[in-house]
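CO-FOLDING WORKSHEET

Operator: S.A.
Ligand of interest: adenosine-5'-diphosphate
Run index: 170
Mode: holo prediction, single chain
Checklist:
[x] sequence pasted
[x] SMILES validated
[ ] output reviewed
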Amino acid sequence: MNQQKTEKLRFRPRARIIRTIGDQLISGPEAAVIELVKNSYDADASYVTVKFVPPLIPGAGSIVVQDDGHGMALEDIQEKWMEPATTAKVNNRRSPSKNRVMMGSKGIGRFAAAKLGARMSLYSISERKGQRNEVLIPDLDWSIFSAEAYLDTIAIDYSVGETEARVRTH
Ligand SMILES: Nc1ncnc2c1ncn2[C@@H]1O[C@H](COP(=O)(O)OP(=O)(O)O)[C@@H](O)[C@H]1O
Ligand SMILES: [Mg+2]
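OUTPUT RECEIVED:
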């Protein structure tokens, strides 16, 4: 090269990277459930239930994973759940109230949910500074991550509001 010009190149992930690190790299459905249960443990849950709602055939039925942990406020969903490779558990290795050694660290476990079903919904109740809120992502269709789209163009519908709801304790 005669004329040297320094420019920057940037990575721009395709949306399908979510499927690659989620359902394609995860070994099986058992490992996928374990990732979700580990997240409940890290969230200081006292229990986590895994409920199978038949018929468990493609296109019907569901698997419901529910815990009574600290949940996610909208900021947590935005800054942790929506960030692939989130560093949420990298610097802080202890859970907030029960001081558990965190099981997660890589910031990719939740994407294993794509191994368990074609679609998912996320419902989270959280209490922060006395304010009790619920956030709902009603329908996340994992197939939107399979197309040619770039990851930064994918948008997901949600609703948020105050709530009186409490998670059932067992
Ligand atoms: N059941 C849950 N309760 C509260 N927060 C959760 C739950 N599941 C996931 N999260 C949040 O989503 C983030 C991403 O989860 P995950 O992909 O498993 O990565 P990691 O556990 O390695 O941080 C977690 O760091 C946590 O902040
Ligand atoms: Mg995890």
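REVIEW:
Residues 23 and 85 are 15 Å apart (CA to CA).
Strands lie at 48-53, 62-67, 119-128, 131-141, 159-162.
[x] output reviewed
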